[in-house]
Structure formats: C-alpha cells, structure tokens
C-alpha cells in the first residue's frame, strides 16, 4: 500500500503544559491530547519534554563512538555473553517470524544498574565498553538513560490519569521497574540487501516507548490501520516519538492502541542513529488497571512469552518465571 503522509500526521504534543502549567486547564489539556493520540494512533510526537538537547546530542555522539569500534571489539561486548542480555548485538542477529531477511541494524542494550543478576537476567549489571573513556560513553549514556527513564515514567503517569486512575497505582507496578534502553545504528541503504529492513514491521512488547531519532535522518514508518498505509514519521530535532506497546494496550482493555511500525534507512550513503527507552514495570507486576483481569500474567511472564526464543533460558528457569501455559 502507499503512503498516507499527505492525509494524516501524528499529533505533536507539547508536554510543557503538564510539566510547568501556566494557567488553569493546561495539565488537563495535555492529558486529553495524549489520551486522544493513544486512542487513535498509539503513537505521537512530543516536544517540551524537559530532556535537554545537550543530553540528546551527547547520547548520539556516544552511540556513534561505540559503533565505530572494530568489529572484534564490539563482539567482545556481545549481549550473548551477558546473563542480563546487556551489550552489543551485531547486524543480522534479529530475525522475526515471517520476515524473509534479518534486520540490518546493530544495537547496544543497557538497563537498570543492579549489582546482582536476578529473575533470570531481567535485573542485573550493565556491560560498559572499557575501550572508550567513561566521559565519552558511560557517563553521557547513563545520564541520558536516567532522563528518559523519568520521561517514560511521566508518560505512564499521564496515561493513568487519562484512564481515570489515581497516581498511587504506580506504586503497584513500578517500585522497581524494568526500563531497558536500546541504542541503534542503521547502515546506509547501499549496504543492505534488497528487501531488507533496518527493523522489520513489529509491535512493541510492553509499556511506554520513548524514541529519539537522529534529526534529519528519517526512516520510521507507522502502520495506520484505518488507511491501510504506512505513515513516515519525520526525525525532528528535540522531538521524541512516544508509543504504547502490546502490554499497555491489553492492560487498558484495548482503549489504547499498539501500532505496527518499521524502519527503513532511505539514505544511500549515510548511517542512521536512534535510541529507544522502554518503560515496562516490575517483573512481578500484573495488570494494575484492572484487578479483575482474568489474565494474571506478570510483566516477566509476558516478556518470556514474547521473547522466549531469544532468551535461551533453561526450561526450569522458564517454568519459575512463566506459568505452565506459556512454556508449553
């Protein structure tokens, strides 16, 4: 199907009215706008978010520095060697069921900095590249992670208010939330195979995604179900893309959408950088929006169900994290 770019655009919402309201009704207006965007699209763009532009630029510079390392040095940091699945993923390692070719992207994963590996790797220590001075990678990356951690938490807060829930509900599922961050480099189009995507079409797994795109390097496309078409989403400076995953869609009783999306780096000779921070919830949290939900799967169990082929956990570990019906 063709593009629907001329017919429709994702909402661009200014969060500053919620963070620092100037007049009565400012916060309520932002809540209503985000509710409408998540109801109709599952995606929106966000400005006035409070993440300094200097942090965004520092993060992108750090990503560029990391991916410029020699292949053998990056592979020494492979997430396959880490029990918490933190570290480097080389191009071609991610292949979704139904895709003809693996993703062309390479990626690097971090999460909460927990000293001990717990819950079969959902909590644990990060892998930091010793080849790069801390002030060129670890420090700016960690500062950025914390900023988008709090932004994801703030979006969750607004979504709860939009559905009429008290903010105390955060205490039920976000005491020690899993917040994962994925730094990504997409190779130039000329370096990919015919028909290969940077990231193939998929829905995000969990809660709130906070996506930074390298300004001017377009490539993200969102599937608009009503139009049966892909909508290109421009990469704008100091503007985030926010979306809901399958978990929050189901937790909300389908009131919020989780939309399919993909990435195609359309530049022949230039790489493209991005970074996604995923705010899910505690590993043992169940649906806080509906205590009567017959599906009592925890966040950890839902993760296992979605990604069990990638986690390579022993059967006894899976049975302890996930109920029997998810391991059959």
TrEMBL record:
Transmembrane segments: none annotated. Belongs to the iron/ascorbate-dependent oxidoreductase family. Gene3D superfamilies: B-lactam Antibiotic, Isopenicillin N Synthase, Chain (2.60.120.330). InterPro entries: DIOX_N (IPR026992), IPNS-like_FE2OG_OXY (IPR044861), IPNS-like_sf (IPR027443), Iron_ascorbate_oxido_reductase (IPR050231), Oxoglu/Fe-dep_dioxygenase_dom (IPR005123). It holds the Pfam family 2OG-FeII_Oxy. It comes from Coniochaeta pulveracea. This is Fe2OG dioxygenase domain-containing protein. Keywords: Iron, Metal-binding, Oxidoreductase. It comes from the Eukaryota. GO terms for molecular function: metal ion binding; oxidoreductase activity. The keyword Oxidoreductase applies. Residues 175-281 form the Fe2OG dioxygenase domain. The lineage of its organism: Eukaryota, Fungi, Dikarya, Ascomycota, Pezizomycotina. GO terms for biological process: small molecule biosynthetic process.
């Amino acid at each position: 199907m063709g593009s629907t770019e001329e017919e429709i655009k994702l909402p661009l919402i200014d969060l500053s009215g919620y963070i620092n309201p100037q007049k009565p009704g400012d916060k309520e207006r932002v809540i209503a706008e985000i509710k409408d965007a998540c109801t109709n699209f599952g995606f929106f763009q966000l400005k006035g978010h409070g993440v300094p532009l200097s942090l965004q630029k520092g993060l992108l510079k750090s990503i560029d520095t990391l991916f410029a390392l020699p292949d053998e040095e990056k592979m020494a940091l492979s997430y396959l060697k880490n029990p918490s699945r933190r570290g480097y993923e080389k191009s071609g390692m991610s292949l979704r069921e139904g895709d003809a070719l693996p993703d062309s992207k390479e990626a690097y994963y971090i999460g909460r900095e927990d000293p001990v590996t717990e819950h079969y790797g959902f909590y644990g220590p990060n892998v930091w590249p010793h080849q790069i001075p801390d002030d060129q990678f670890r420090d700016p990356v960690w500062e950025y992670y914390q900023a988008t951690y709090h932004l994801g938490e703030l979006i969750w807060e607004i979504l709860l208010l939009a559905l009429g829930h008290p903010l105390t509900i955060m205490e039920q599922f976000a005491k020690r939330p899993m917040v994962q961050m994925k730094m990504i480099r997409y190779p130039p189009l000329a370096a990919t195979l015919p028909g290969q995507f940077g990231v193939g079409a998929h829905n995000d797994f969990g809660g709130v995604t906070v996506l930074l795109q390298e300004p001017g390097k377009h490539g993200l496309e969102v599937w608009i179900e009503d139009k049966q078409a892909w909508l290109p989403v421009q990469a704008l400076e100091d503007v985030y893309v926010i979306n809901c995953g399958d978990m929050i869609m189901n937790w909300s009783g389908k009131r919020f959408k989780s939309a399919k999306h993909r990435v195609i780096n359309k530049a022949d000779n230039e790489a493209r950088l991005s970074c996604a921070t995923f705010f899910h919830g505690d590993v043992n949290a169940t649906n806080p929006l509906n205590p009567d939900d017959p599906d009592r799967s925890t966040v950890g169990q839902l993760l296992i169900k979605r990604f069990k082929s990638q986690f390579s956990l022993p059967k006894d570990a899976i049975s302890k994290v996930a109920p029997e019906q998810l391991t059959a």
